[in-house]
Amino acid sequence: MSDNHRHCYLFTGSSEDTLSDFLHLSQHLSTPLIVTHDVSLYQEKHADLLQGNTLSLCTFKQARQHLGRSHEAVLLDLQHGVSASALTILAGTVRGHGLFAIALPEDGWCSMTDQDLTRYLPWPYQPEQVTSYFKRYLLERLYQDDSPFLRTSLGALPPLPALAPIADYPALTQEQRQVQHCLLAAQAKAYVLIAPRGRGKSTLLGDTLAKLLQNGKKVAVTAPNQEAIKTLKQRFVASLTNSEQTFDLPFIAPDALILTSSDTPMWDYLFVDEASMLPLPMLKALSKIAIHNVFSTTDYGYEGAGKGFGLRFCRFLAHQKIPQHTSSSPIIEPLQRLTLVTPVRWGGNDPLENWVNATFFLTPSDQTPRLSQSQSHEQSTAPQKKPCLALTGADWLAYPQLLAQAFHLLVSAHYQTSPDNVRWVMDDPSVTTYLSINTDQACLTDPQHPTAHDHPLNSVAIVTEEGDLPEALSQAVLQGTRRPRGHLLPQSLLAHEGIEEAGHYRYWRISRIATNPDQQRQGVASDLLTAIEEVALPKVDFLCTSFAATTDVVMFWLKNGYRAVRLGTSKDQASGSYSLMMVKPLNDDAKQRANQWHKHFVATFSINILLQYADLPTELIILLLQGSADDQDTLLSPHDRRNILLFVEHHRPFDSIRPSFLKAVLTIIGQKNDRSFHPELSVLLEAALGRDTEASRQAAHLSGKKAMMAMFKTQLSTLLESK
Length: 723
Hints:
Elements: E1 7-12, H1 15-25, E2 33-36, H2 39-45, H3 47-50, E3 56-59, E4 71-77, H4 84-91, E5 94-104, H5 133-143, H6 174-185, E6 188-195, H7 201-214, E7 219-222, H8 230-239, H9 254-259, E8 267-272, H10 280-286, E9 290-298, H11 306-318, E10 333-338, H12 351-360, E11 372-373, E12 388-391, H13 395-398, H14 400-413, H15 420-427, E13 431-437, H16 441-445, E14 457-467, H17 471-479, H18 488-497, E15 506-515, H19 524-536, E16 542-548, H20 551-559, E17 563-571, E18 578-585, H21 588-611, H22 618-625, H23 638-649, H24 658-671, H25 679-688, H26 694-699, H27 705-722
Parallel strand pairs: 1-5, 2-3, 2-4, 4-5, 6-9, 6-10, 7-8, 8-9, 15-16
Antiparallel strand pairs: 11-15, 12-13, 13-14, 14-15, 16-18, 17-18
Helix pairs in contact: 4-12, 6-7, 7-8, 17-18, 23-24, 23-27, 24-25
């Protein structure tokens, strides 16, 4: 294979036969790796075959530890279970001319109980009860004409030849040198380097880091953990081998960097590797630490994070102000986007890489070139409603092109979408995917229709069935002694809010929703929710959702009639936001319960604003409390009213009425129900919570403290008159 492509084989037969074939083919290759659901089966059943062979074993769960590593031979044993993420990760670790093999039984694989299926199934489903349609899909892909996997009898095949050692310090490719030139030119405040795996990002960064230090620049590097920069560090050390200067890798943990930051940038350059694995608020804080910031991450690929990261974070970086400072290379733009296209770990147009990307939808679709979350504040005027198609399980096998479109949309919109999610939507019996498509209903209901697969998606939503838990199980969850798989919303209301009846109700949770950007702000996602509601009405009590709370997303769900019932107390590691749960009742009993649950939320949230949510954006707090006056118990006591009256009409000091002032502000916010932005409310709330009011005062056109106090008295007078 002069083109440096990988050798791919599909072994079928007993585990002993497939292991023997793999060891035969890889006997001249260095340290073969065997990956399986349970390594103990190999250690117990095949000890004789393994004896004397220099190889390593790992489970599917340990596959992520091999990100960034390079292997000459990998056997992925799928006989007892399938992990899509392990497959995509490990295929990306095999070097050019290396061996990537998949082992399957001779026949009956699709009907065999899958031991890895448990983690996809909610209570009470068990793997032996479920038909895996994902396995059928994967098997079809392995046997299709574009599959790189050879199924030739191995009896006559000679072992693969030994591979030439990889040069310790390979010269940078022309493409890498061009990107490095851009970084060293220092003409942008921020650089974002996004590329698929195997393109040499870490090698480039390590070499550039060494050059900057040799040129006297003050440089720091950070990443989610030091394991993520092993390749970067190796190249950094190698680049300094012949240097007269000695430097230690200037690695500093992200949180430590932020703690030591100041208004004046401390570094000339900050390198952030695997940036998409860090929360967005942390990335924004890191972007202020150095004069030049370099953020590197994977595009699509194995974490399923790069595209979402690029869309969200790049938008923020592009609007940065360019600092004014003297420099031989002045900054002339806020952001430069950089990429590497040519693979360095294997040859170009590699059949294995192409197959993995196509099978798990890891590359952009021509029909969805630029996608983002649909959970935005849409216009009230919507076009004609589009037909909706509901797919589950075996349905996807009849609509493979819609499966591809749906995941291209989801990968682009949700940075936590991963290859494992393909299996989840196909194999979890509680999951139904709803698609809004530009076509007529006849095309949708007949997969044999000549144009059934040719129309682009407007919007996609994944819905999971939850709740209807037995009384004994609900009590165990309430008491903290059981945590059954799945059932996110009823479990959270039971275990964290102490709502005893939450487990009895039936829920459909909108787990993911995304809309084509060409269709955003036109009511498309709202129409899809309406279609889902029409199907749900006779079957369930609540529609519900749980998501990383930001103002625009909360606004979307409020507009569609959902009410907040729980806000998490810790931030999601990926999004850097608190998780908000909302419900929409679908019958009279559910409406009564939703009122009670929302009233409970308002009461606890009003206290927790001070106890747990010091960093929650003011605008989001206001949005969550607006229109809640009917759900609030009387906040202002007669004593509170006297305090406020003395402040408004006399000379009572403001600091002496702060508790009463906070209650009054929460009441004022609760009386507002238009969900429009009121600058005065931000000033009121920030003052009540002891936050800095300077920015909100300017937005409200208040010239200073005196004008602010006058506004307070006007608002409080109106409140007293209304009671």
